[in-house]
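Morning. Coffee machine broken again, so started the prediction first thing and wrote up yesterday's gels while waiting. Chain of 343 residues, entered below exactly as on the submission form.
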Amino acid sequence: MKKKVVAGLLTVAMVAAMVTGCGSSGGSSESSSGDSVKESYTIGISQFAEHGSLDNCREGFLEGLAEEGIVEDENLKVEYKNAAADMGTAGQISDSFVSDKVDLICAIATPTAQSAYNAAMDTEIPVIYTAVTDPVAAELADEDGTPVGEVTGTSDKLPVEEQLKMIREMLPDAKKLGIMYTTSEANSVSAIAEYKELVGEYGFELVEKGITATADVPLAADDLLSEVDCITNLTDNTVVASLPTILEKANEKKIPVFGSEIEQVKIGCLAAEGIDYIALGKQTGKMAAQVLKGEKKASELNFELITEPGFYVNNKVAENLGITVPEELAADAVESFDEITEE
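Came back before lunch.
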């Protein structure tokens, strides 16, 4: 029996009995290796929360599959469900996909990846995840990157040092850097640990505020903003889903908020050294295609990373805050924005 992973710092109670085996979604033919290759597929996509970066992962994932000849409404049926940042709902979604005997589960974000693997580990259903910051800390991979079972995917590990360097260049006089995070998200706990190791090298003092649910965000934001010179955001799903609230409060106090990817910059964060989530999703889709076609098992594919971050900046936010973007940074921007997009 494989060991179940723990969702962040909380043990998730999984419900319903596990169903063994994958259902047949269509006709099949023999591959060169003698394995049965399906002509059509049914996959379940479980997304932990609805916000831009995770939506981009889903879009990219389907694009990646399509580039490999697996196209929605042609030879692919997609069951998409959103957990609305609730772990109980995520568990129910995972169990429903197992009951439906889908051919593969795509899990978007760490909590859903853990939940999906817990539900599917005793079946033949592979789990391909994306937007999991630290698969090792999430107990989805071993230290060398090998999967713990039929589960693999892509990591959106934050370029923490690049982010700190960028913030220091933009705010040379800032001293206290704030971060809000969900204590039960393994990805956030891992990122906080890395920030703690590095902030001193860039002359910052780190101020953390842990939350357990969306309802905690307004008060935590008020507390954090009363103590810091700026805030940097993680890929924390609960926090990102509440980012408009945080930005509204920060703007009132003229405190800059830095994002972790492009969508956060679009809606009002000052800047980010982040990754392209559509590209990350596309990379994940190509991995899933190998598994669906029978070319590889999920357990044969180590998790993958996008290693080159890009600089994104919102010039309108900089103008509102009275901040001048250094010329060298501005020249290197992958993309810059002159307006704030309503989410």
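The radius of gyration is 20 Å. Going to sketch it on the whiteboard this afternoon.
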